[in-house]
Design a protein that fits this description.
Layout (H helix, E strand, L loop, with lengths): L2 H11 L10 E3 L2 E19 L3 H6 L10 H9 L4 E20 L2 E6 L3 H27 L2
Antiparallel strand pairs: 1-2, 2-3, 3-4
Length: 139
């Protein structure tokens, strides 16, 4: 897979359209969706050395071999590996509603995120409470 193809796929997936869709007009109102989009990626290539060149440059190799043979081996056919990937997060934030000359913000409330945030807060508070009780019990 080449880099251009990878970047094209990343831009398709890291878009506000993944959360909401494109902006549209209905009943004289323009609705513009807004989302938090974050992502990252990476890639790289590498070559593998032949084992023969590694053995020739070892401590038991005869004098005169080693570096020259290693250079010759490194110019020969070697295995080349490449890889890459990306990941991202798209969270809906809300939408701007434009009607005439007025613009209104309508937030998107995701009940799942609210519940998970509440449970995380309760867990942190419970940990703080148990830590304080343990410290009080010790002299």
């Amino acid at each position: 897979m080449d880099v251009e193809n990878l970047l094209a796929r990343a831009s398709e997936n890291l878009s506000v359209r993944r959360a909401f869709g494109a902006a549209y007009e209905k009943d004289g109102m323009l609705i513009i969706p807004v989302a938090l989009v974050a992502g990252g990626g990476g890639g790289g290539t590498g070559t593998t050395r032949s084992r023969r060149a590694d053995r020739a440059a070892g401590p038991g190799s005869p004098p005169g071999t080693g570096a020259a043979e290693h250079d010759a081996a490194s110019q020969g056919p070697e295995g080349t590996d490449a890889g890459g990937g990306f990941g991202g997060l798209v969270l809906p934030s809300g939408a701007y509603v434009v009607k005439g000359d007025q613009v209104r913000w309508v937030p998107a409330v995701d009940a799942t995120i609210v519940v998970l945030a509440s449970l995380s807060l309760l867990r942190v508070l419970a940990r703080i409470g148990t830590t304080r009780r343990r410290r009080r019990g010790r002299p």
